[in-house]
Amino acid sequence: MPRSLCSRPSSTPASRRGFLYGLGATLGSVALTDLLAADAAQSASASPLAVKSPMHRPKAKNVIMLFMEGGPGQMDTFDPKPELSRLHKTESNLTGGLEKGFKFFVGSPFKFRRVGQSGIDMCDQWVHLADPFVADELCNFRGCQAESLNHPEALFHMNTGSRLGGDPAIGAWATYGLGSENQNLPGYVVMTELALPQGGATNWSNGFLPAHFQGTRLRPEGTPLLDLQAPAHKSREHQRRALDELQWLNQQHLASAPAIQSDLESRMESYELAFRMQTSVPDVIDLGRETAATHRAYGLDQPETETFGRQCLMARRLVENGVRFVQIFSGGWDSHDYLQRGHSARIRSVDKPMAALIADLKRRGMLDDTLVMWTGEFGRTPDNNKRGGVYSLGRGHNNHAMTMLLAGGGVRGGTTVGATDELGSHAVECVHPIRDLHVTLLHLLGLDDNKLTYFHAGRYKQLSQFGGQVIDELIA
After folding, report:
1. Distance from the CA of 35 to the CA of which of 60, 90, 268, 359 falls in 20 to 30 A?
2. Do the domain assignments include residue 449?
């Protein structure tokens, strides 16, 4: 049955002390105290991450977002531009971008071919993704346009819907709207390289949503979560008694200070989740349970693919165990110079793991309801600056054109949606801003961006900021 999720922050039922606390502010806060108590009466017994019904029939129930930080070049990956190759090293007449001065066109160093029965375009560096079993599941969207040319702002925008940072990430919105299918695991998990993406944890923040919905980062080296194993001298029973005592103390604090209610409740729930995770997480992250053939398929036996391959395999295991939203960040795509060397190395590092992930989900019958997305924060320019009298074969930042891949989860596999001009400078067909992409992702999950709102700073807020439209051409 359709529903709307327009919520204010949760609250404990109003006590006499809490009511008097509200009198210390304004008449508006007195009225709000009553409204908060009414909201709390409906949800006090439910876990913040309890499964919620979708607002309409969903096509996907999980998302795995593969984020290529730095901005892959669309004309060097999935959007061939023969005219750009013809103009290679000739003077550019394009304007815009961050850099000024003499510019020249840069043709792609890679050759392109059509792969699979669908004939999707792909540069020759993609070897494993070109397998028809995988390629025919891909939807290549070329019509998206970003707003910012700066990495941090563009990253925030793609991840949270806002260029300013501080708003909830899309994974936080998804878990807020749908909850988590496994109460012993986080609903939203993030994996990065050792170096965090620009903007750091702001990219997977809960923002103004309760802290239950923030992304949980798994470390790339060592134990994925610190303190996952309890000290040898502490039994489960001892931990349980300590948590019960702490819970009682926090409840007393909460009764006397309702203003900190949301943060304190979130902290209390995080302690309980951490306790449950100590028994659930080790099994989920134990890749030793997978076969040697699976390890090889994901590239765990090769240094250049081991890190991303391990994360992709982990992502499959996480969604298999009920995690709602998984993000993996892969850096190094900001190729202002040495384009051929940089992009070929980055493609090799993700090609085999990506193909293995999609193929693995497909064989297990999970791809139908798991949406896999490959994207960066923006695209690249067809030209570059000549620096110090030397032709620098790279590309600048481009917020007018980019390419991204989607697979599974109700999208149209084996299709190319939208187009860029003959140089790859601007999207010219099926052009949509990032907010429309976000609205579409929520729609595939069974959520309506206009109804998935949260009251903050005097108004109801939503992922798209001020609304958007579903990109129907992407949906099967």
Report:
1. 268
2. yes
